[in-house]
Amino acid sequence: MTTLSKFETDMYNSQHTTLQKVADALKHRNVRTDKAVLDDLERIVSNQRAVEESLLDQFSSNGMTRVEEYFFDNSIEIRDRKYTGTSNFYETNEGKFVENHDGNLYKVIKGEPKLVWKEKD
Length: 121
Prior knowledge:
Elements: H1 3-27, H2 34-62, H3 66-73, E1 78-83, E2 88-92, E3 95-99, E4 105-109, E5 112-117
Antiparallel strand pairs: 1-2, 2-3, 3-4, 4-5
């Protein structure tokens, strides 16, 4: 799993858990005071912010490859990655990509690689 994929998965899981906690707090609101429910919601949101900051810090410290940055900047989700020793093959929500030994990124369209991002010389 790439750094970016792990970040996306961890962030999604964190947000999903937070939504479940909010739903539970609201579900039991008729047996608790409004202040108690609002205090719980404030604590839940505050905790989510702390988790997101922690995930962002981890993500920033791990860094991204130039290709992961390209995918991130273009909102492309990496679903799988294989390294063959000379090339990286990516399965994404936008299709297949190949990063060759030259550092360039190609999108595979109808079986043919099309250059989408060129490593600076």
